[in-house]
């Protein structure tokens, strides 16, 4: 039975609604952290601080409550909770997770330091002896200290210099230990946490937070994808080379059940082989929603993606998702400009096929090294011809003047980058702009968009990076 597509809502009212939903989530997160801190102060913890020990103890308790609340928020940001992800987007959630990493470590470091200091001050011993006293007499403290050490390792691995030296697989394994670190911290919180012991409702509050985070992490990151994939019986049914450095992998479900997602979204793909079953990788769908297969068009970017080029037919696949708000849901303008570079063409192709549009509403710019590397270019040509999109496939060596353009374009003109862009996409000032490509290329292109003073609400970016 045919389905009727819902009308697309555009305009300022939609912008305000999207902003309100995002703001509501942010306010809820802030209040989740403030509630225990305000409760502590309301209970008189900040009064009569007339000795160094009382001050140290106050800072220790304050950092304990704020650190615990922030740690749980840190985890829920990457739990892939659908109703949160649908509002904020997994890329922004992951970005917030990264930004909170260092402040969280600083707060936990203050908590550890003041715990040792308080132990030394109370017993009239030096700091080293204070530390030894805690770990020798209280097993929960030793366990928590091990957890803190794991948190340091996880945070260091996220520093840009370290990330550049680590493979995705090594980085992923290190980050799995953050869950162990959280579990190791729990015993000392409920055994020695004076705020928990003095205020039962606060203890209940944190138990509820722990359960909420644990249930969401276990269900959405582990159980639900496995159960769903077992039910659907998803497996590789076709492997098709597309260009010199890219291959399309087709995944189908048993009984040829169609896949429903929003064009522009991606899946976390877990290949059930001995080498790869333990780690998922993100890939955008290059097919259209409602088809009886999912297609992932994958470029060679490492060992895993090379193995995907020759994956065997029938290999079982576990899918998490779909994720992402790089979709029509964020669209507020009638005109749309789609920008792709390299393998970033995958979600752009899907959007080009399914965005609601009239002829000349959509302009597509596709940057590739050469015609042989222009993955899915023929499909974009066919879609554009059918729907009346304006397509520009830009190939050639990188320009030294405007890095996101080929030199063949910039050498033929003295115009600045923003003027060249408006020539290629005349409606871009009044368009929603969707950009997907390698991180450096994307940053260079967005820098040009800023020169045109296009509002952030009209710019939607999906980066191919981890």
UniProtKB/TrEMBL annotation:
GO cellular component assignments: membrane
Domain FAD-binding FR-type positions: 229-329
Keyword Zinc applies: no
Keyword Ubl conjugation: no
PROSITE patterns found in the cross-reference section: FAD_FR
Subcellular location: Membrane
Bilayer disposition of the protein: Multi-pass membrane protein
Cofactors required: FAD
Keyword annotations: 2Fe-2S, FAD, Flavoprotein, Iron, Iron-sulfur, Membrane, Metal-binding, Oxidoreductase, Transmembrane, Transmembrane helix
Membrane-traversing stretches: 21-42, 62-83, 104-120, 140-159, 171-190, 202-220
GO molecular function: 2 iron, 2 sulfur cluster binding; flavin adenine dinucleotide binding; metal ion binding; oxidoreductase activity
Name this protein carries in UniProt: Unannotated protein
Organism name: freshwater metagenome
Organism phylogeny: unclassified sequences, metagenomes, ecological metagenomes
């Amino acid at each position: 039975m045919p389905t009727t597509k819902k009308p697309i809502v555009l305009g300022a009212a939609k912008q305000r609604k999207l902003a309100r939903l995002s703001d509501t989530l942010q306010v809820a997160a802030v209040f989740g952290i403030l509630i225990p801190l305000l409760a502590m102060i309301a209970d008189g913890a900040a009064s009569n601080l007339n000795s160094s020990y009382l001050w140290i103890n106050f800072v220790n308790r304050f950092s304990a409550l704020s650190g615990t609340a922030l740690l749980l928020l840190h985890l829920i940001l990457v739990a892939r909770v659908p109703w949160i992800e649908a509002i904020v987007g997994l890329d922004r959630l992951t970005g917030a997770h990264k930004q909170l990493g260092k402040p969280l470590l600083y707060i936990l470091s203050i908590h550890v330091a003041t715990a040792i200091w308080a132990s030394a001050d109370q017993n009239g011993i030096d700091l080293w002896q204070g530390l030894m006293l805690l770990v020798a007499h209280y097993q929960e403290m030793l366990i928590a200290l091990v957890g803190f050490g794991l948190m340091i390792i996880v945070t260091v691995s996220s520093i840009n210099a370290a990330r550049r030296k680590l493979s995705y697989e090594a980085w992923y394994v290190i980050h799995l230990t953050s869950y162990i670190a959280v579990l190791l911290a729990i015993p000392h919180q409920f055994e020695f946490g004076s705020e928990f012991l003095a205020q039962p409702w606060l203890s209940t509050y944190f138990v509820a937070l722990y359960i909420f985070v644990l249930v969401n992490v276990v269900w959405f990151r582990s159980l639900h994808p496995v159960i769903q994939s077992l039910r659907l019986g998803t497996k590789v049914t076709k492997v098709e080379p597309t260009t010199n450095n890219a291959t399309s992998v087709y995944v189908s479900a048993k009984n040829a059940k169609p896949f429903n997602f929003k064009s522009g979204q991606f899946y976390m793909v877990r290949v059930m082989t001995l080498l790869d079953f333990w780690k998922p990788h993100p890939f955008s769908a290059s097919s259209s929603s409602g088809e009886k297969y999912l297609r992932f068009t994958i470029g060679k970017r490492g060992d895993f993606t090379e193995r995907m080029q020759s994956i065997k037919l029938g290999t079982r696949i576990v899918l998490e998702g779909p994720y992402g708000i790089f979709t029509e849901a964020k669209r507020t303008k009638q005109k749309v400009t789609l920008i792709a570079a390299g393998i970033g063409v995958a979600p752009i192709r899907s959007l080009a096929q399914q965005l609601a549009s009239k002829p000349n509403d959509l302009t597509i710019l596709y940057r590739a090294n050469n015609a042989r590397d222009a993955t899915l270019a023929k499909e974009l040509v066919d879609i554009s011809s059918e729907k009346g999109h304006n397509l520009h496939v830009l190939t050639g060596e990188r320009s030294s003047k405007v890095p996101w353009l080929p030199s063949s374009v910039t050498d033929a003109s003295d115009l600045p980058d923003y003027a060249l862009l408006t020539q290629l996409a005349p409606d871009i000032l009044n368009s929603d702009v969707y950009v997907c490509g390698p991180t450096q290329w994307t940053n260079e292109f967005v820098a040009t968009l800023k020169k045109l003073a296009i509002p952030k609400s009209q710019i939607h970016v999906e980066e191919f990076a981890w």
